Amino acid sequence: MVNAQIERIRNAWNRLSMNQRVAVIAVVITAVMALGLLIATRPPQRYGIAFSGLSSEDAAAIVENLRAQGIPYELSSDGGTIRVPADQVAAVRLDAASQGLPRGGSDGFELFDKSSLGLTDFTQRVNYQRAIEGELERTIAKIDAVEAARVHIVIPEESLFIEEQQPTTAAVVLKLKSGRQLTEAQIRGITHLVSGAVPNLQPENLTVIDNTGNPIWSGPDGGSQFAGLDERFRLQQAYEQNLERQLQALVNPIAGPGHAVVRVSATLNWDERSSQSEIYSPDGLQPQVRSQQEREQRTSGTVTETGGVPGVDENVQTFPETPGAGSQSESSSREVTTNYELSRRIEEVVQAPGQVQRLSVAVMLDGSQVDPAVAQEIQDVISAAAGLVPQRGDTITVTAVPFSDVGNRELIPDGGTPILEYALTALKVLGLIAIPLVALYFARRVLVKPEDAGELTPALATVGGPAVTEPPMPALATQRITISETPPQLEDEDPSQSTDRGLPQLPAHLQVIELANTDPAQVAQLLRAWMSEEQ
Predict the structure, then answer these.
(1) Residue at 302 is within a domain
(2) Which residues contact 441 (CB under 8 A, 6 or more apart)?
């Protein structure tokens, strides 16, 4: 069967002319080169990160698993990151998780799964301590900003006397991800996690440092390295971004979207102040009377003057008394006692931290799209909207400069695949479809070998012969005609006369014209056959 096919191909090849063979070879070489070009320019396979921050043991186990499954992978120079094809990342992670990988560098409570009989009590305590350390390392390493963690615990033996009992201590070493920092809440969360997982461990006996040796936590008294700075920075950044959004929304209708940029820099005062004041008779009002007591006393009478000189009776003649010889007296007193309510007001004012101390606003306008004449109007609007106070030192700057159009020519949309890559992929697919079609078209034109149909008619073979009508030839058949420059003449015929068996004795070009007039279909078919032979 195979030999028959090979023989058939060989016979078909032998029937081809030299031009046809050259054309076939050229088509095959072109198709192979096009296919090789498509393969060479094929975009590389996309790889995604399946695991990062691996220990040497975990990386070796995962690589061995990938090799066993025949999955291609890439290993970073430090051996801690493994990349696999992007469409297999999820499957590789699930498969590794089913095998307990990655283990996180240190063994946890699985230490007791492979323990043997005859272990001493000391060995059991050490394994228990190692298990706690390993579990804590795995848990801490899952925090977003932490790449790896090491936990060291010191659990002293219990003493019979309380005063001789040594406290439990622990130390945590964190390796943070590049450019990441722990927040105050995360630091406290780590300290509470460790102190809650280790028996008799107090937060003041825990120390947390980073991989550069800087202390992150040194107990409640020492606080953390950041001491609330991270929270203050977050609040300040949130205030600036919120104000920027408001001002940007105000400028966009004037300058147009994408033709203005607003930036705000705020200085906040984080000092906390409190003041207390005591005010009597507030607002100048009359004090309120609590009680009032009033007492009034009035006296009146007559004073008479009668009698003589004390002593012996006088030898004086006595006369009768005359009435109305005395004087009148009158007195009065008034006493008022008023008790007022104690009019006093105590005020305690606490100034919360985070007051705006200074604002700086910068506005950049696209000078090629925005009229610089409106810069002053924009500055006035921004100043009023932001609540700038010049006495406080607030400043605003509005500048109009031409923007670069690099961003407008960006071919990569946010979060998507580059448009140029999509276009190249589409062109390659079209090329894979078009190249075989073009090759098939030319091969069909070349491989169809024209059949020699002989002369078209005896009249064309010998111009003076009789005309013979033949059936029409197939469309792809090639017909040949031979026209003599000097047509042969019969011995007993006059060249100037026509015979009833053929064409008149005319020049060759006139004979062709006459044939085209009498049978244009055959002439057109003949011309198509000639054109096919030339191609």
Answers:
(1) no
(2) none
Q: Residue 52: what are its φ and ψ, rounded to 5°?
A: -145, 155
For residues 236 and 292, give the distance between their C-alpha atoms in angstroms, rounded to a whole number. Answer: 60
pLDDT confidence tier of residue 321, bands split at 50, 70 and 90: low
Return all residues near 74 (Cβ < 8 A) that are at least 6 apart.
47, 82, 83, 84
CB distance 295 to 334 below 8 Å? yes
Domain assignment present for residue 319? The answer is no
What distance in Å separates the CA atoms of residue 338 and residue 361, rounded to the nearest whole number?
Answer: 63
Contact 508, 463 (CB under 8 A): yes
- Locate 532 and state its tokens: 């096919």
190 has a pLDDT exceeding 50: yes
**Count of domains for the chain:** 4
pLDDT one-digit tens code per residue, 284-309: 566 667 777 888 877 776 655 555 55
The pLDDT value recorded for residue 43 is 66
Domain containing 179 equals 109-223
Once rounded to an integer, what is the mean pLDDT over residues 504-523?
70
pTM for the full predicted model = 0.40
Q: Does residue 362 carry a pLDDT above 90? A: yes
Sequence-separated (6 or more) residues with CB below 8 Å from residue 464: 487, 488, 489, 490, 493, 499, 502, 503, 505
Is there a single domain that holds both residue 243 and residue 213?
no
Write down which residue in 192, 223, 254 finishes a domain: 223
Q: Which residue has the higher pLDDT, 304 or 165?
A: 165
Answer whether 365's CB lies under 8 Å from 399's CB. Answer: yes
Alpha-carbon distances of 102 from 178, 208, 309, 343, rounded to whole Å? 21, 24, 139, 75
Residues 155, 205 share a domain: yes
> Do 56 and 191 fall within a single domain?
no
Mention every residue, 6+ apart, whose C-beta is less than 8 A from residue 334.
Answer: 294, 295, 296, 297
- Across the range 108-131, mean pLDDT stands at 78
462-512 pLDDT tens trace: 444 444 444 444 443 444 444 444 444 444 444 444 444 444 456 666 777
What is the tally of helices (H) and strands (E) in the chain?
A: 12, 16
For residues 253 and 396, membership in a common domain is answered with yes
CA angle, residues 270, 248, 242, in degrees to nearest 5: 30
Write down the mean pLDDT value for the chain. 74
Backbone angles phi, psi at 275, to 5 degrees: -140, 145
DSSP 437-493: HHHHHHHHHHHSPPPEEEES-HHHHSTTSB----PPPPTT-EEE----SS----TTS
C-alpha span between 90 and 84 (Å, rounded)? 10
| Percent of the chain with pLDDT strictly greater than 70 | 67
The pLDDT value given to residue 403: 81
Q: Identify whether 57 is part of a domain.
A: yes
Same domain, 128 and 165: yes
The CATH number of residue 262's host domain is 3.30.300
Give yes or no: residues 130 and 252 share one domain: no
Tell whether 84 and 135 lie within a shared domain.
no
242 in the same domain as 218? no
